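Duplicate of #3305? Posting structure anyway:
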């Protein structure tokens, strides 16, 4: 019995050591995701969630089945971080009507001034408390900045896709992307699929970060509208 306990302890130690080897990769993943999220989301929380998942995966890892531990763990760690963002449920806490009103005013303001309006401006125009404006904008941003190929689960949580399969969702996304201009297509490609930050895309295309953010939100809005039409 003593030998069995000793073996189990040694195994657990080696598994935890395996997880520790890839902790820098988890931190890099969290940093990359944090670049694409509002400042209210703490990187430390993302790292904590990712590390916890990494340790669980290390204790389940079987090298005879998977050649690479990080290859086995990478997608699952990223998924745990995205699940955490969804668990915040920021959209349900914010007034959904207010989110729509803000998106409309932001789009209108941007067309006139080529920059996004301040929270103070939106609070005045919509006759709302500035704290509510900030919460609603964060809610909108968190949803829009989750990578587009992960949007399926987020949308499903709102029961919008009860009659759709993931393949159908991706077909809808592709059709919408084809209708965009070349610059807009490039932004979506770089942002969601190449996973560049707003700053990096801004430097490549020489347009403002706020404009890039606005375009990504508009695309997500079109996808949600298309899904709504299909579901009636």
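Output from current build:
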């Amino acid at each position: 019995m003593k030998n069995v306990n000793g073996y189990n302890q040694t195994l657990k130690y080696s598994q935890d050591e395996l997880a520790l080897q890839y902790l820098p990769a988890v931190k890099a993943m969290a940093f990359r995701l944090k670049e694409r999220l509002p400042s209210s989301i703490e990187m430390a929380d993302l790292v904590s969630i990712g590390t916890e998942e990494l340790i669980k995966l290390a204790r389940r890892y079987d090298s005879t089945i998977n050649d690479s531990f990080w290859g086995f763990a990478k997608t699952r760690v990223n998924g745990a971080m995205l699940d955490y963002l969804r668990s915040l449920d920021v959209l349900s806490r914010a007034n959904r009507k207010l989110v729509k009103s803000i998106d409309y005013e932001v789009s209108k303001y941007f067309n006139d001034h080529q920059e996004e309006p301040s929270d103070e401006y939106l609070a005045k125009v919509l006759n709302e408390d500035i704290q509510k404006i900030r919460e609603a904008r964060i809610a909108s941003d968190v949803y829009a900045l989750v990578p587009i190929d992960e949007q399926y689960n987020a949308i499903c949580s709102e029961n919008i896709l009860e009659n759709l399969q993931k393949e159908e969702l991706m077909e809808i996304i592709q059709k919408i992307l084809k209708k965009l201009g070349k610059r807009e297509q490039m932004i979506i490609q770089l942002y969601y699929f190449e996973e560049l930050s707003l700053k990096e895309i801004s430097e490549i295309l020489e347009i403002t970060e706020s404009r890039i953010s606005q375009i990504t939100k508009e695309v997500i809005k079109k996808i949600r509208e298309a899904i709504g039409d299909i579901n009636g």
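Confirmed duplicate; merging threads. Residues 107 and 218 are 9 Å apart (CA to CA). DSSP finds 13 helices and no strands in the chain.
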